[in-house]
Amino acid sequence: MQEDTLFSKIVKGEVPADIVFQDERVTAFRDIDPQAPTHILIVPNKIIPTVNDVSEEDEATLGHMFIVARNLAASEGVDADGYRLLVNCGRHANQEVFHLHMHLLGGRPLGRMLPAGS
Question: What is the pTM of this model?
Answer without folding.
Answer: 0.93
